[in-house]
Design brief:
Aminopeptidase; 11 strands; alpha+beta; eleven-stranded mixed beta sheet; 2 domains; globular
Length: about 280
């Protein structure tokens, strides 16, 4: 799961819910495990909480080890739409001086850079906002937290003790030549989070006009390479079962579990009109 730097995490015995930094945006139930006779009430309570806070979009994850099997049908009954089947995949990078990288055909004309400053972070967010629906809002606390994490990379020591440094969130950009302008442009972005000896790969997306150029493959390899330098020996990701998952499995990733995403748009309650007495 991914928790934005300035986001809010709510966890109890029934669910793990993450709210975005802004007042509106996409909230996510990453795990839910209610008793069967409480499940529908939990869904309704969560929806009402978001509606009361200003509405937005709620993504509810179900699948192996994150929810009981009956949650899918209950979410559908309450208006959620299943939007994606996911595969949870793992790749062993190893603990040698050089990483074992996925078997990917990497393009020579695409380069991958870590977003190391505010301009890079904003460029990554700009690409993300064009690729994904309902993009999040980049807020100042999130920018400051990210830049603080980048500064902390200078003092991070690889190896088993890296977990003591906490999670390290990273954003990456892929650049390729734009024929229309004759220079390199940011064409894709992706995120990664290094936690101890594990790197979580997430949020890869390429601008529609630059797809099929290998930017996605370059971002996978680039994130794995840097994460290994920071002490990661295992890469984990959730991939769309119909699109990126087959590519990653062919590259050597192994299937760990299956997941599904269900989405509900939540409008605010309409405010009552104030009619004067006549």
């Amino acid at each position: 799961m991914h928790v934005p730097a300035a986001g809010t995490l709510v966890e109890d015995g029934e669910r793990l819910l993450v709210h975005p930094p802004g007042r509106r945006g996409t909230s996510r139930v990453w795990r839910s495990w209610p008793a069967r006779d409480r499940a529908e009430a939990l869904i309704l309570e969560t929806v009402e909480e978001l509606r009361a806070s200003g509405g937005g979009r709620l993504v509810w994850h179900t699948g192996d080890a994150v929810s009981p099997p009956f949650m899918d049908a209950l979410l559908s009954r309450r208006g959620f739409e299943k939007t994606e089947d996911l595969e949870v995949l793992a790749f062993e990078l190893g603990d040698g001086p050089q990483p074992r990288l996925p078997r990917l055909d990497l393009p020579a004309d695409v380069r991958v850079d870590l977003a190391r400053d505010e301009a890079g972070l904003r460029a990554a967010h700009a690409v993300e906002s064009r690729v994904f629906p309902n993009p999040s809002v980049l807020v100042e606390p999130e920018i400051h937290a990210y830049l603080g994490g980048i500064e902390g990379l200078k003092h991070r020591k690889p190896g088993p003790d890296a977990a003591k440094d906490g999670a390290c969130a990273l954003r990456f950009l892929a650049f390729a030549q734009d024929p229309a302008h004759g220079d390199d442009r940011a064409v894709a972005t992706a995120g990664a989070e290094v936690v101890g000896e594990t790197v979580r790969l997430w949020g890869a997306g390429t601008l529609a006009e630059h797809r099929r150029r290998g930017a996605y493959r370059a971002l996978v390899a680039g994130r794995c390479r840097l994460a290994h330098a920071l002490g990661a020996t295992l890469a984990l990701t959730k991939a769309n079962a119909a699109t990126s998952a087959p590519l990653l499995r062919n590259a050597g990733f192994r299937l760990v579990a299956s997941e599904r995403r269900h989405v509900l748009s939540i409008p605010t309650h309409d405010a009552p009109e104030d009619h004067p007495t006549r």
